[in-house]
Specification:
six-stranded antiparallel sheet, YdhG-like, 138 residues, DUF1801 domain-containing protein, alpha+beta, single chain
Length: 138
């Protein structure tokens, strides 16, 4: 079975942010503040480009298993990628409709800058994701 490429590393979060798109630095630090406060976990690097918070272990019926951050984000060149669980669940989907200028996938939300988002709704989505992750994976 293939091993996961995305793992927690000892990478320097601040150094990674400072090397990212200069337009995303301030928003990145703001996201870290929000996610650390809501998760109770410190920011850590996951792989070369994801800033994650917390950790959970999953195992699918197929036998594939691994570890992943409970929530995270990446300040990618084109846009931010926000990693949360089940943004297509009914609760998350309803919140996503109120979030602002986004594109969404199953476990990822894409946006250009924080000012395009309703931060109150973002915090609700993060808390819902943390709750769902705990319920599913402990």
């Amino acid at each position: 079975m293939a091993e996961n490429k995305t793992k927690a590393t000892a990478g320097d979060v601040a150094a990674f942010i400072e090397k990212s798109d200069p337009k995303k630095v301030e928003d990145s630090y703001r996201l870290i503040e929000i996610m650390e406060r809501l998760s109770g976990e410190n920011a850590t690097m996951w792989g070369p480009s994801i800033i994650g918070f917390g950790k959970y272990h999953y195992k699918y019926a197929s036998g594939h298993e691994g570890a992943m951050c409970r929530i995270g984000f990446s300040p990618r060149k084109a846009q931010f990628s926000l990693y949360i669980l089940s943004c297509d669940s009914p609760e998350q989907s309803q919140l996503a409709d109120q979030l602002g200028k986004i594109k969404k996938a199953v476990a990822c939300i894409y946006f250009k800058k924080l000012e395009d988002l309703n931060l109150g709704i973002l915090e609700k989505m993060i808390l819902q994701s943390l709750k769902e992750t705990k319920e599913m994976w402990g």
